[in-house]
Amino acid sequence: MNFKVGDRVELILRSKKRVGTVEEVYNDIQKCKVQIDEFPVTVTKPQKYLVKAEGSELVVPQCVADWYEDNKGDIGVSIWQYIFNWEYQDKNSAFYEVMSNQISSTLEMLFKMQGGYKGEKEALYYVRVIDNINGYLNFSSNNSFLGNAIERGKYKTKFTEAEIKAMDKGEAYWLLREPVEEAEGEA
After folding, report:
1. How far apart are alpha carbons 112 and 28 in whole angstroms?
2. 97-106 burial, b for 16+ CB within 10 Å, e for fewer?
3. Which of 11, 16, 99, 172 has the fewest Cβ atoms nearer than 10 Å?
4. Pairing relation of β-strands 31-36 and 118-119?
5. pLDDT at position 152, please?
6. Is 1 within 8 Å of 50 (Cβ atoms)?
7. Residue 110 phi/psi, 5° resolution?
8. What three-state secondary structure class fits 87?
9. What is d(CA 182, CA 100) in angstroms, rounded to the nearest whole number?
10. What whole-number distance in Å separates Cα of residue 43 and Cα of residue 151?
11. How far apart are the first and last CA of the chain?
C-alpha cells in the first residue's frame, strides 16, 4: 500500500492498537515514520504493518478549511506571506483569531491538510432582539428586520459567529445569541 505524509494509520505497538500520522515515507525500503497519537514517540515501521485508519479524517475549523482552499496551490508560500504581512491581516477574521492563538499547531494542521481533511461544522445561532416569539433578527436581500405578526417566529435567520460579529453592533448581537439546537429544542 502506498502511504503519503499526513496519512492517518493504525498499527500495533507494545501489543496495543495505536493510531498515528505518517511523517515520512521511505518507498525504497517500504517503511514509514509514524508519529503516535497521545505519545511523544515516532516509530519507523514496514508499510505492510500499517493500515489506513478509517473514520479518523483530520477535522479542522471551517475558517481554516476555507483559507486552505483559497491558498492550497502553494501552501508554503501562502503561509509565509500571511505571516510576513501579519500587521495587514483582517484582525476580525476567524482565521486570524485561530492563527494568533495557536500559530504553531495551526501551521502543522495546514500542512497535514494536504493528506485530506474535513471542515468542522460551524455552530449556528439565532439573534433574539426582543423577548417574544417575533423578536428574532432576520435578513432578506441585505435588509435586516424583526419577525412580524404574520411570520409568528416561523422565519428565523441562522448566523455563524463570524457573521454576527461582522455586523454593525455585532458584539452586542453576540450577547443576544441563542444556539439553534437549544432554541429548536424549546419549541
Report:
1. 23
2. bbbeeeeeeb
3. 16
4. unpaired
5. 46
6. yes
7. -60, -40
8. helix
9. 30
10. 61
11. 51
**CA separation for the pair 68, 74 (Å, rounded):** 10
Q: Please report which helix (H) or strand (E) contains residue 99, including its range.
A: helix 94-101
The Cα–Cα gap between 153 and 41 comes to 55
Mean per-residue pLDDT pooled into runs of 10, the chain (187 residues): 81 83 87 83 86 73 87 88 92 83 75 76 82 72 56 68 82 87 56
DSSP 80: H
CB 37 within 8 A of CB 20: yes
Are 122 and 161 contacting, i.e. CB atoms less than 8 angstroms apart? yes
Residues 35 and 181: their CA atoms lie apart, in Å, by 37
Q: pTM value?
A: 0.46
- 8: alpha, beta or left? (left if phi > 0; alpha if psi -120 to 50): beta
Cα Rg, the chain, nearest whole Å: 22
Residue 118, all three cell numbers: 474535513
Cα 93 from Cα 76, distance rounded (Å): 21
CA–CA separation, 167 and 174 (whole Å): 10
